[in-house]
Amino acid sequence: MNTYLIYGNDYSLIKREIDKITKDINDVTTYDLSLEKVDNLLNDASVISMFGDKKVLIGENALFLSTTSSSINHDLDYLERYLEDDNHDNIVIFTLNENKLDERKKIVKLLKKHATVIHKDVIKDKDLPDFVRDEFSNNGYKIDYKTASYFVWYAGSNTDILISEINKMMMYKDDDKTIKIEDINEITSKKINDNIFDLSNAIMDKDFKKMYECYNDLMTLKEEPIKIIAMLGSSFTLVYQCKLLYNDGKRQNEIADILKVHPYRVKLAIENNYKINNIKEILKKLHNLDYEIKSGKIDKTVALDNFLLHL
Q: What pLDDT, on the 0 to 100 scale, is given for residue 122?
């Protein structure tokens, strides 16, 4: 089958699957189906690549496969005819950053029949060491479970960051393909965790001088903006959860137990100057930034600069 549907809540895992499918293919075009009609993608899929090889058409935000409403009037009859004809040279990939499909829709049933459907849900914390081991193993590297668990503890549970750190480690260990704890200590610097913690606190305290000092330190360390955005997202999610639980009458120690974090982080989260609605807006902005960078709509450094500038 040359047609795929990849869906789930974790965009980084969806992107990982796309990278596997598109590996070694030069002609790749992406359509945002929340803004463009699926007809345009299908017309493109019917044309031979200008390079003479197989090409890939990616249809992101295929909201017509979910219960989410869309203002775009897609020609789903055209898509149904395309799916029922299995003789296609080019590859079409539909993606949906949601955890459920609308199983009642005819087009969903046809995709399940005529396409390869891949569901990429958020990885549970307890499964992250296995995820790390699989990522290394699939690329010809060795890491035991104890070391993989240490890797997760050291780098954090955000899959974006884990994938970034795994790629960095594989570049470093290109000759010796066995990952050891001393490699993690040497390559996966903990300094970013400390700086991100300081940056998050500066943002929450609205201490803009401190914020730019932390940001400049991170840029000096050549840390990836996408990693900074992911870690800021984790920090603000924690603040949001803490404030909700605190408003619900929970004490600080109870919140720390529920969220499995240090009580000091709970104290800082509750005392920061942002209201819950402000935090929701920041999380929404970070999510949009992450998507726009990964879809190539904006330069990653410019995106992060703009975010901090307009806080």
A: 79
> CATH 1.20.272.10: does it fit domain 191-309?
yes
Query: CA-CA distance, 75 to 35, in Å (whole number)?
Result: 14
CA atoms within 13 A on the CB side of 242: 26
Q: What are the CA-CA distances from residue 185 to residues 155, 180, 189, 271 (Å)?
A: 10, 9, 7, 33
Sign, CA dihedral 128-130-136-138, equals negative
- Strand, helix or coil for residue 268: helix
- Could you give the C-alpha distances from 11 to 126, 200, 291, in angstroms and in order? 20, 23, 8
Question: Which pair of structure tokens corresponds to residue 209?
Answer: 């001088």
18-52 in b/e burial notation, b at 16+ Cβ within 10 A?
beebbeeeebeebbebeeeebeebbeebeeeeeee
Give the domain ranges of the chain: 3-119, 125-187, 191-309
The pLDDT of residue 51 is: 62
275: left (phi over 0), alpha (psi -120 to 50) or beta: beta
Residue with tokens 């902005």: 285
| Residue 30, pLDDT score | 92
Q: What global pTM score does this model have?
A: 0.59
Cα–Cα distance measured from residue 62 to residue 188, given in angstroms and rounded to the nearest whole number: 36
Distance, in Å, from the CA atom of 276 to the CA atom of 99, rounded to the nearest integer, reads 25
Answer whether 268's CB lies under 8 Å from 222's CB: no
Q: Which amino acid is at 156?
A: G
Q: What pLDDT, on a 0 to 100 scale, did the predictor assign at position 52? A: 66
Which CATH fold topology does 3-119 show?
Rossmann fold (3.40.50)
Q: What CATH number does the domain located at 125-187 have?
A: 1.10.8.60
Q: Which residues in the chain land under pLDDT 50?
A: 191
Indicate the helix (H) or strand (E) that contains 309: helix 300-309
Please state, as a whole number, how many other Cβ atoms lie within 10 Å of the Cβ of residue 243.
Answer: 18
